[in-house]
Design brief:
The complex is a heterodimer of chains A (about 300) and B (about 300). Chain A is mostly helical. Chain A has 14 helices and 2 strands; from the N terminus they run H-H-E-E-H-H-H-H-H-H-H-H-H-H-H-H. Classes of the chains: A mainly alpha (about 300), B mainly alpha (about 300).
Chain lengths: ~300, ~300
């Protein structure tokens, strides 16, 4: 199909009237227009509005007035905010590699063709992705319970005393476990899809050269799916920095361990909806957005450079 | 996201396309099934399934049964059916209302998001138009902006124009799926031969007709994939409705379940853990069923998307 047309098509094109060509040039907008319009309403307008908000401050006496970059200065010195940033930073450094590592191992195992019941594995590991964060957190929250939950059941059944997953020391790890559970399958699927499109001739060539399984993985498979890995990492980084649902829902079960400034996102939410500090909340959100973009960008640069 | 221009790579083999018969080998050597590898991967499988099994078992227990029985085994009474009946009738059947709200948000929000993504992806893949690069850069940049960082300003903006506490506040932001747009763009540039579009135009078809008669059928696997992913995103959405809605009559299931759970934690509130759990089960069943039924379609759509990253 591809070899048939081009010469003829190339010959026909100049014959078209200029008016028709101009119309054709704008046709694309007809298709992307609706997306662009809604996008402007729900992305660009709020973005601009939050920048605007961040430059003002509302006080009980004196009302709202322009304060320049004062809010930003406040954010940069805000201990509550930076504690949250450090917390999600720690979360990211541990949870993301664990989750992506497991996802990669499962994807490689399924792709190797050496599993019994391969499609059962593929769909089952993916299923938690279909579970809402609310339900996932409620389930794990109940299972974590030391009194009536599964942890408590195990304690009483075996006469042991397991550490409390909802204690202040462990709650971050417990949240990490919930997020890992939710997203292993999703990431596995992205990596598996990338593995499936590697040309089989590469494996045959490697086989002739006497390469073993591990060598094929390190020399062919991993380089081939590097792009997908970088994408998965960037999505996970953004997800970690946005952490809100799991701590917010778990908060009711662990009120002492999870504060309303537990993550930066939770902090902006609390500032805006309980604290009525909408201008400062917008500022914190922008600072967090910038941090996220910088980290995502660094991940992308490093990921693309490696071995390239 | 990684490159600003699509890199041409060979299209993935399509089952329909005639191919030369080559011995199918997934890895060097004939892959021999391995019990050890299956067992090791099985650990992750058990991890993925365990909470779901726990939920399934717990949904069969009464409130008292939950407290007295072991989490991973059944209680003496089997209360699944009465739990389901109670979930649907508790508080004048508000669960049904939440379910209908969720369906509304999914049909309009996810359906609309898919439509916009298909149209937009088609435009990016198959047309050159002024400002195309700018559109691409802005959308990709927006993916990196934490969506939740925009939530508060979006809320303030929507409350200014009177949209908060209405279904619109949940539906309108759901209409944009940058990931869906990206997936459709990658998919469309592979699935639709430009020559076919040219042929349709020569035959006198307008752009709209070409899109519906030529492009859309070829885009079906990608469309199903995007539809499933936007459906999950909308069905599972929690943060957006949480900030946008006060009136519990407009809650989706996620927010409703959360409110039942909070009620149980509040002192003096009625504890309905059994209904929270049964409601949770009822919330995930439709999505899991959709994924299982449609897996043939969304998987082929996804692997095309995996090519060009």
């Amino acid at each position: 199909m591809t070899t048939l047309q081009p010469p003829a098509a190339a010959g026909r094109r100049p014959a078209r009237s200029p008016a028709r060509r101009t119309r054709r040039r704008w046709t694309g907008w007809g298709f992307i227009g609706p997306f662009a319009l809604v996008f402007a309403l729900v992305f660009l307008a709020p973005l601009a509005y939050s920048v605007y908000l961040s430059l003002f401050r509302t006080q009980l006496i004196g009302g709202t007035h322009f304060v320049g970059l004062d809010n930003y200065q406040q954010a940069l010195q805000d201990g509550q905010f930076w504690d949250g940033v450090l917390r999600v930073g720690l979360f990211l450094l541990i949870q993301v590699p664990v989750m992506l590592g497991l996802a990669l191992l499962v994807a490689l195992a399924i792709d190797s063709g050496r599993l019994y019941g391969k499609s059962f594995f593929r769909i089952t590991v993916f299923l938690p992705y279909a579970v809402p964060a609310v339900v996932a957190t409620l389930m794990w929250g109940f299972m974590y319970g030391t009194r009536y939950g599964l942890v408590g059941d195990i304690d009483s059944a075996f006469g042991v005393r397991l550490p409390d997953p909802l204690s202040a020391d462990l709650v971050l790890a417990s949240i990490g476990n919930i997020v890992t559970w939710e997203f292993i399958g999703y990431n596995m699927l992205i990596l598996y899809a990338a593995l499936r499109v590697i040309p089989h001739s590469l494996y045959e060539a490697a086989e002739i050269d006497g390469a073993g399984h591990l060598r094929v993985i390190t020399a062919i498979k991993l380089p081939a799916i590097r792009g997908a890995l970088v994408i998965a990492t960037i999505f996970s980084v953004i997800g970690s920095f946005q952490l809100f649902n799991e701590p917010a829902i778990l908060q009711k079960l662990a009120p002492n361990a999870i504060t309303t400034d537990f993550t930066p996102n939770y902090y902006t939410y609390s500032l805006s909806f309980s604290g009525q500090q909408q201008n400062y909340s917008a500022t914190v959100a922008i600072v967090m957005g910038v941090i996220t973009m910088i980290v995502a960008y660094v991940v992308q640069l490093r990921g693309m450079r490696k071995g390239a | 996201m990684t490159t600003s221009t699509p890199v041409r790579r060979p299209a993935p083999p399509r089952p329909a396309a005639p191919r030369l018969r080559t011995p199918r080998r997934h890895t060097p050597g004939r892959p021999r099934r391995s019990v050890l590898l299956t067992a090791l991967t099985g650990v992750v499988l058990v991890y993925s399934l365990l909470p779901l099994v726990w939920l399934l078992i717990s949904a069969t227990k009464s409130q008292e049964g939950l407290a007295r029985s072991f989490g991973l085994w059944f209680d003496g009474d089997f209360d699944l059916w009465s739990n389901i009946a109670d979930t649907f009738t508790y508080q004048d059947g508000v669960f049904v209302r939440w379910l209908l709200n969720t369906v509304l948000y999914v049909v309009v929000g996810a359906g609309g998001a898919t439509l916009l993504a298909v149209l937009g992806g088609y435009a990016l893949a198959k047309f050159d138009f002024p400002g195309k690069k700018a559109v691409f850069a802005v959308v990709i940049g927006a993916v990196a902006v934490p969506a939740t960082a925009l939530a508060v300003p979006t809320f303030l903006l929507f409350s200014k124009i009177g949209l908060t506490d209405t279904p619109w506040a949940v539906v309108v932001p759901s209409l944009i799926s940058p990931f869906g747009l990206y997936l459709m763009w990658v998919f469309a540039s592979e699935a639709i031969p430009t020559e076919l579009m040219e042929a349709a135009r020569i035959d006198g078809a307008g752009e709209v007709r070409t899109f519906f008669r030529v492009a859309l059928p070829l885009l079906a696997p990608g469309t199903v994939t995007v539809l499933l992913f936007t459906t999950v995103a909308t069905w599972n959405n929690y943060f957006l409705p949480l900030i946008m809605l006060k009136d519990s009559d407009w809650y989706p299931l996620t927010l409703g379940l959360d409110s039942w759970n909070k009620q149980a934690q509040t002192s003096g509130g009625e504890t309905v853990t059994n209904l929270v759990l049964t409601g949770s089960l009822l919330t995930i069943v439709p999505l899991i069923a959709a994924f299982l039924l449609l897996q043939k379609y969304w998987r082929s759509g996804l692997s095309a998307g995996g090519v060009k990253e």
